[in-house]
């Protein structure tokens, strides 16, 4: 039986890839999930074959009815930025209103794409969700931790990727490229391990969790089975640096000294310097294999 799936954030980085993954499950003339995208604006080109509805997470009254007839909600919308009021309005209050609407409409499953940033600063080595307390350190991660609570209290599922890479990434690799440009050099003697997931694989995993017959609940990490070392992350980011880095590689302490007046880049550096390695006993390597998720 075909299921109807509501996707929030369908015009964004992760939500857009989730919508595409769902569309791929329904080739022309085949039975597959019916997809409804929740968008703040329905102006412009509409994705072919997908229903769109206009609603705004910052205006709860606009959400009335968006979950009617829906079996699964894949909540991929979020606000990341320095505007704390907007961050709370979208991530915390908006998620609460969406969950209330989903419960009213008797939606079977709610899946929220959160972030491992809700744990705060590392190091984390082979960390599983049940063993790591939430300690969000920024307004964005605090609001997303609040959003998680709304979903979990309703019996939903929370997915926490760490670094999300791939087409459309405006945060991870661009941020690391900015770090390299500021240092004018690479790093040496720094091989911490970092969980990551390619956005296309994350999208397939999100849809698999949403559509699975398994009785899934709770919070889960969703990352590639093996982490990347710092050197590989910087190698990937270096593709965005268009000029050669003239300096010799720096130690982490030398880099900290060079960045002492640039707190945002210092944050990137501190993240790179220690493990951020997350594992899960449900969304594990066997899960990726069973659901045919490319890694």
Provide the low-confidence segments as ranges: none
Q: What profile does the largest beta sheet have? A: 7 strands, parallel
Shape designation: globular
The helix-and-strand class reads alpha/beta
N-to-C span: 29 Å
Mean pLDDT: 91
CATH homologous superfamily (4th level) name of the domain at 4-164 and 198-223 and 280-290: NAD(P)-binding Rossmann-like Domain
Describe the structure.
The protein is of the alpha/beta class and 295 residues long. The protein has a domain at 4-164 and 198-223 and 280-290: NAD(P)-binding Rossmann-like Domain (Rossmann fold). It is built from 9 helices and 13 strands. The protein has a 7-stranded parallel beta sheet with strand order 3-2-1-4-5-7-11, sandwiched between helices. Strands 6-13 form a two-stranded parallel sheet. Strands 8-10 form a two-stranded parallel ribbon. The longest helix is centred in the first third of the chain and has 21 residues, at 84-104. The chain starts with a strand and ends in a 5-residue tail after the last helix.
Keywords:
295 residues; alpha/beta; Rossmann fold; 9 helices
């Amino acid at each position: 039986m075909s299921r109807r799936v509501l996707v929030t954030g369908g015009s964004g980085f992760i939500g857009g890839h989730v919508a595409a993954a769902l569309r791929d499950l329904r080739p022309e003339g085949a039975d597959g999930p019916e997809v409804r995208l929740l968008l703040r604006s329905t102006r412009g080109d509409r994705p072919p074959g997908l229903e769109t509805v206009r609603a705004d997470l910052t205006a709860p009254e606009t959400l009335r009815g968006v979950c009617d007839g829906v079996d699964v909600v894949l909540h991929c919308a979020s606000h990341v930025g320095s505007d704390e009021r907007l961050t709370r309005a979208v991530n915390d209050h908006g998620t609460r209103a969406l969950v209330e609407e989903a419960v009213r409409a008797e939606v079977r499953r709610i899946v929220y794409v959160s972030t491992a940033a809700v744990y705060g600063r590392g190091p984390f080595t082979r960390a599983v969700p049940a063993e790591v307390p939430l300690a969000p350190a920024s307004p964005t991660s605090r609001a997303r931790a609040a959003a998680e609570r709304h979903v979990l209290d309703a019996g939903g599922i929370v997915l926490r990727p760490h670094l999300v890479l791939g087409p459309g990434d405006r945060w991870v690799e661009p941020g690391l490229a900015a770090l390299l440009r500021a240092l004018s050099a690479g790093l040496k003697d720094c091989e911490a391990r970092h969980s990551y997931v390619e956005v296309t694989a994350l999208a397939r995993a999100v849809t698999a969790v949403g559509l699975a017959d398994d009785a899934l609940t709770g919070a889960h990490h969703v990352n590639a089975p093996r982490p990347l070392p710092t050197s590989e992350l910087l190698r990937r980011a270096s593709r965005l640096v268009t000029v050669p880095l003239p300096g010799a590689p720096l130690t982490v302490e030398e880099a900290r000294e060079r960045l002492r007046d640039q707190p945002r880049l210092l944050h990137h550096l501190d993240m790179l310097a220690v493990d951020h390695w997350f594992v899960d006993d449900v969304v594990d390597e066997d899960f990726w294999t069973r659901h045919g998720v490319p890694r």
